[in-house]
Design brief:
single chain, 445 residues, alpha+beta, seven-stranded antiparallel sheet, six-stranded antiparallel sheet, 10 helices, 36% helix, globular
Length: 445
């Protein structure tokens, strides 16, 4: 960076791509326009509204240029250091030995300009960090390989990247590719999309009966409808062209239309596999698979930053094939699930028949849900603690719930078991968890 001389033996700081301020300014313009309400547009008129948006966006772009000019990054030893700030200088040191994943993400504007951003997942971090936005695609790929190499203590990681292009990643073995037509149909079979025509008919009837078609009323109605459809539309855009590959002991996930993502999930960090059968999907025999992965930010406000997608939509045969890759020897249709005792119907009169839990040779499985069926599968080696809980009604009915907690999130729970069975199940889970960790060489056991 200009005016900054690196110490002897330390590589110079690098800047982000020169187009970074323009992309940040464009993002700010979208936020500004979204923040200005329809009522503001109707009060001040389109001309003043456009002028306000332009002034605010120009100010944001100027600040982005200043930020870009004073931002730099380099690798020092086993740390990625990011320097930023004009008046208040700040240096972030990200220890690479705590690095879990580096994702190359390309939002729509970045795709149009040939850029990408790096998002880093660090153990103990409050959220997924995106300290380097934006870089050239080749530069981002090369830096990602180097950061992962430093984190893995490989010899080739010590020297700075010499060329502009990264070595191609191994292709791996293709596990599954989701058909986009299945993805679209699956989101049409969600409550938001399924009930939208009824909502539109109701709103039109209200307008016709009131005889009022004001701009604010129509715009507010359209905005509300867009909000209802936001979740299914976002899922289609996020999971478009979903592809799952396996490369050694890692899963490689690639997905996205407007924003493409390339994520890597180490199989040894998978804590739980979750299977979901939404109500409207069951008539087509579809299910959805998700993961809980240790070291990733469970409190991340944007769930798209978490690598928890395993299969957005697929049939039972595909689900079994994918689960067998993540949890070898586990079959979805062969899990020994048993129901709670008959007296549990006083607590769950409708859903008792849908609840089940059981111990497989390799995993603990628990099923729940009436309209939306859910199945949580936890390998014994990933169980961190076992709890037995009782509510007031459960105590009167001599029932209890057994929780198997993991490092990645909720784990699994066997609801409303007989008290004696619950304590026996908890003891068996504890014993199997210790045995599985000893067999795997886990020092915690």
């Amino acid at each position: 960076m200009p005016g900054v001389a690196p110490p002897p033996g330390e590589e110079p700081r690098q800047r982000l791509h020169p187009l970074s301020p323009a992309l940040h300014g464009a993002k700010s313009l979208v936020v500004v326009i979204a923040g200005l309400s329809w009522s503001t547009l109707s009060r001040v008129g389109f001309g003043w509204f456009a002028a306000m948006a332009a002034v605010l966006a120009l100010g944001a772009t100027v600040l982005a240029v200043i930020s870009w000019y004073n931002t730099g990054y380099h690798i020092v030893g086993r740390e990625l250091r990011v320097h930023e700030g004009l008046i208040w200088r700040r240096t972030r040191a990200i220890p690479l030995e705590r690095l879990q994943a580096v994702e190359v993400v390309r939002p729509l504007l970045a795709q149009l300009t040939g850029l990408a951003e790096l998002r880093l997942e660090v153990v103990g971090g409050g959220k997924t960090e995106a300290p380097l936005a934006y870089l050239g695609v080749a530069e981002a790929a090369a830096l990602r390989q180097r950061l992962l190499a430093v984190a893995g203590r490989t010899p080739e990681a010590v020297a700075p990247t010499a060329g502009p292009a990264a070595a191609p990643a191994p292709a791996g073995r293709r596990l599954h590719t989701v058909r986009n037509t299945d993805l679209l149909v699956s989101q049409l079979l969600t409550p938001q999309a399924f009930l939208l025509p009824f909502g539109v008919a109701f709103v039109v009837a209200q307008f016709l009966s009131a005889g009022s078609w004001s701009f604010i009323a129509v715009a507010s109605t359209l905005t509300a409808m867009a909000g209802v459809l936001l979740q299914p539309v976002r899922r289609v855009l996020d999971d478009w062209a979903f592809r799952l590959d396996r490369d050694g002991d890692t899963l490689r996930i690639r997905n996205g239309l407007l924003e493409t993502r390339a994520q890597t999930v180490p199989l040894h960090r998978v804590q739980t596999v979750g299977v979901t059968w939404p109500l409207l999907w069951r008539m087509k025999g579809w299910l959805r698979l998700r993961l809980e992965v240790a070291g990733y930010s469970a409190a991340e406000p944007d769930d798209r930053n978490r690598p928890d997608r395993l299969l957005p939509v697929g049939d039972l045969r595909t689900g079994e094939l994918v689960v067998a890759e993540v949890l070898p020897g586990v079959r979805l249709t062969a899990l020994p699930l048993t129901r709670p005792p008959r007296r549990a119907r006083w607590l769950r009169p409708l859903s008792r028949s849908a609840i089940g839990a059981g111990l497989d040779e390799r995993v603990f499985a628990a099923r729940s849900g009436l309209l939306t069926r859910r199945l949580a599968i936890v390998p014994y080696a990933r169980i961190q603690s076992v709890r037995v809980t009782q509510g007031p009604a459960q105590r009167r009915l001599r029932l209890a719930t057994v929780h198997a907690d993991t490092a990645g999130g909720a784990g699994a729970a066997a609801h409303d078991r007989d008290v004696a069975e619950a304590w026996q199940l908890a003891a068996e889970l504890t014993a199997r968890a210790h045995a599985a960790r000893r067999a795997g060489g886990d020092p915690l056991s």
